[in-house]
Design brief:
single chain; 7 helices; mainly alpha
Length: 202
């Protein structure tokens, strides 16, 4: 399997898992099947859509319609199998990998368009976490992004590592892999050791 094909396959997994996460939130809120599908779309394509709109680029899923099919499939999966998925720990790790992948993909797109580090970091973090923020707002949940859980921070750091490696003239494949690994490892450490960012004591 070529690196490009492997990356495409990983991206598809990320979309599917993010869609399941949105679907599960909808099921918890006792939404009907349509509501589950709508909420599945938000984390799956929401971050990338906002990124492309802000960067004045064609929205990615207009050409890659398979992404929409995967989002629908993720919603149906959550609708019918949510009780089993709620306790499926590997799903959390797949979500962490999807976050890392989306973060570096967003950062790479911004950097390929010639933007500097602030935009690269924002676009990477947005691609990975804005869809989840939209999901939580629509579902009237307290946004995970605003809690102490280390999630967006991991996406931010992965984007930063990618940017620094690219700035050092490292080959794209290694820069992408380095950023992805950094984001995933930070999220993994937060999951295993229950790490969190400090909150104000006042």
């Amino acid at each position: 399997m070529t690196p490009d094909l492997l990356l495409l396959f990983a991206d598809r997994i990320g979309v599917f898992v993010f869609a399941i996460s949105g679907g599960i939130v909808a099921v918890r809120k006792q939404m009907d099947m349509f509501g589950v599908i709508v909420l599945a779309f938000l984390p799956a394509i929401g971050g990338g859509t906002l990124r492309d709109l802000i960067l004045s680029q064609p929205v990615f899923w207009l050409e890659d319609t398979q992404t929409l099919g995967l989002a629908v499939a993720g919603g149906f999966t959550a609708f019918f199998f949510h009780r089993w998925l709620e306790n499926f720990r590997p799903l959390r790790w797949a979500d962490a990998f999807g976050m890392a992948l989306f973060a570096v993909t967003g950062a790479a797109k911004a950097m390929s368009l010639g933007f500097g580090w602030p935009v690269v970091l924002i676009m990477g973090t947005m691609t990975a976490s804005a869809g989840g923020l939209l999901r939580d707002v629509v579902a009237n949940e307290e946004p995970l992004l605003l809690k102490k859980d280390i999630y967006a921070t991991a996406a931010l750091m992965g984007s930063l590592v990618y940017f620094l490696l690219k700035l050092s003239a490292v080959e794209e494949t290694f820069a992408f892999g380095g950023g992805l690994l950094a984001a995933f490892m930070i999220r993994a450490l937060a999951i295993v050791f229950k790490l969190s960012l400090p909150r104000s004591p006042f």
